[in-house]
Amino acid sequence: TMLHLLAGIDPWPLGVAPFEPAFRESFTVAAAGLGFTRLKAGVEFLPIVAGHLGADAIAGIVALGLSRRPGLSLFIDLGTNGEIALVGAGEAVGCSCAAGPAFEGGHISSGMAALPGAVRRVDEEEDGRLRLDVIGGGVARGLCGSGLTDITALLLARGAISPRGQMAAPSALPATAPPYVSDGLRCGDSGVRFVLSEDVVPAVALTAHDVREVQLAKAAVRTGIDVLLEERGLLPEQVNDVFLAGAFGSSIRPDSLLALGMLPPQLRGRIRPVGNVAGMGAKLALAYEERIDEARRLARTMRHIELMSRSDFQDRFAANIAFPAPEAAS
Q: 3-class DSSP state for residue 279?
């Protein structure tokens, strides 16, 4: 979508089925034609695989050298639009999934971007208290994606959230629940919520609606992973490495994703956050012609799976909504 806007091409077709882009191949235009009037250079657009499996994913895969890497690699760019690719053994297959904005703080009651004041990590102290790691220090003002997944996984492990996503009333907590769990759970007219901090008004809290948003987002990503593995006739344990890209992917705790069931449990110990590899891929494309050629080959040969067109997608998605039981997740 960003490339269409930059090129001055109407992106409207990307918003309706079958989500076809106006272009896929790379091309070069004069910088002045894009509004960069002081830049005397050509601007090359990296190629696109499909409507929502874009040049950012291609650039990230090229930056990591996954096509040249031995073994099987799973590439995941987590965000409102999740991009997933399975690369290795001479073949690449990819898909996009509408994960929703939860991982970027959207549609979350106390959600915010990963800016100063956002809770990015949540830990349970040895003395049974909750510790919040706030970007920039100071008062907690909201939850960004990594903090959201941390607190959801922690409350799931402590019995405050059921695998079905229901929040427990304080009176229904397991006897083993730490004091901070019962202290944080509040019942009100809008249902049960868990309060992380009351230093601002309204308080920073997790609601039942927030938990549902996490479930929907993780179900979309997990379904995409499951389908790509099935398309290649592979099992999760055959994946050698998992690379989590993007701003959210670089700050997320792999253990939280595993606890929520977003990733198969067999991938534990193989997950690596890699940050903004799309930007690195763009730099490599500027410096090395062979990297642009590699991007072109990858985009042409990657097999795209349109999840929404599969007759089994809705059933698979529904089956992935529930969280794993804490025992299974650990």
A: helix
For residue 90, the model assigns a pLDDT of 85
Q: By the 8 A CB rule, do 76 and 246 touch?
A: no
| Residue 35 three-state SS | coil
* CB distance 84 to 74 below 8 Å: yes
Nearest to 78 by CA among 247, 231, 328: 247
Torsional sign, CA 215, 218, 220, 224: negative
pTM of the model: 0.92
Q: DSSP string spanning 297-308?
A: HHHHHPEE--GG
Regarding beta strands 303-304 and 91-98, do their DSSP bridges make them parallel or antiparallel, or are they unpaired? Answer: parallel
Q: In this predicted model, what pLDDT tens digit does every residue of 34-73 receive, in sequence order?
A: 999 999 999 999 999 998 999 999 999 999 999 999 999 9
List, for residues 122-136, the tens digit of each pLDDT value.
Answer: 999 887 789 999 999
- What is the Cα–Cα distance from 77 to 59, expressed in whole angstroms? 11
- The residues near 310 (Cβ < 8 Å, ≥ 6 apart) are 227, 316
The rounded distance, in Å, linking the Cα atoms of 330 and 324 is: 9
Residues 114, 247 contacting (CB under 8 angstroms): yes
